[in-house]
Amino acid sequence: MNDQVAQALVLFGDKVKAGHLIIVGGVYDFSNDMKQGSGKLNIVNVNGDIEADKIAGDLSVKLASHHPAHEHH
Hints:
Elements: H1 2-17, E1 24-29, E2 40-46, H2 52-65
Antiparallel strand pairs: 1-2
């Protein structure tokens, strides 16, 4: 998963840096191997960050700032 996010960052890093794209890596846990509950999608990487606290902060800030009201056409 982290390799896929890293490869996407190579291809789309300019869009990430400009704030136009968020690259998210996730794992669907069928059998509760990650101890978060079976059948859950676990976000494990956001724009190359893999630390849980940083991922949560990154997603909340990035998603809040990408509200449709901020769109420019």
